[in-house]
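Example 198.
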Amino acid sequence: MLNKEKLENLKKKAINNHVPILKDESMQVVKTILAIKKPNQILEIGTAVGYSALCFSDYLSGENALIKTVELDKSISEIAKKNIKEISDKNNIQVFNSDAYEFMTSLNECFDVVFIDAAKGQYMKYLEQAYRLTKKGSIIIADNVLLRGMVMGGYNQHKHRTAVTRLREYIKEVTENPKLETMILDIGDGLAISVIKE
Ligand SMILES: C[S@@+](CC[C@H](N)C(=O)[O-])C[C@H]1O[C@@H](n2cnc3c(N)ncnc32)[C@H](O)[C@@H]1O
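Predicted structure in complex with S-adenosylmethionine:
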C-alpha cells in the first residue's frame, strides 16, 4: 500500500524544490499504459527523489514484482530510499546508486517496461541497452524527448546542443525502427512510447 497523502506531499515538495519529476499529464499516460500492461518487472533510469517509482509501483502485478531504479547522485539516491520506505510498505522498489548506462550493462534480466528519464545526452545509449533488456511486447517509455520544444524546433545553440542532437537521434530511431511501434506525445516535456513488436 502507498500512503497517498505522503506521496502527494512528496510531489509538492519536489516541485517546490525544482526537482524535475514527471509532469502530471505524462504521469497519467504512463499510469494508463501500466494499468493495461500489468508489468511484473520495471526498470527506471533516473530515480531523483523516488516519486515516479512510487507511483509506478502501484501498477506492479504478479509474484516477486519489482522496480529497479538507478540514480547517479549518491545523496539523492539516499533521499529516494528514505522516501520509498516512508511511503510504501511493499518492499518492491530497489534503488541503485550508479551511472545508469553502466548499471544497465551489468543487468541480464528481461523487463516488461523500461522508463528512461535521466541524462538526455545518453538516451541513445540507454535505448541500445533497453533493446537488450526487453522482449516482444515490452514497452520502452522515454520522458523529455521534446526538451521544451527545442528538439522539433530549429534549436542550434551551444548550451543544449548535445542533448538536442541525441534526442533527435532517439526520435528518429524509435519512429523508424520497424521492430517498434512508437508514438511521440507532445505532453509534459514530450513522451516517447515504444512497444517492441518482434
Ligand atoms: C528527471 S529526473 C528523474 C525524475 C523521476 N523519474 C521522477 O519523475 O520522479 C532525472 C534524474 O536522473 C539523474 N541522472 C542524471 N544523469 C544520470 C546518470 N548518468 N545515471 C543515473 N542517473 C542520472 C539525475 O540526478 C536526476 O535525479
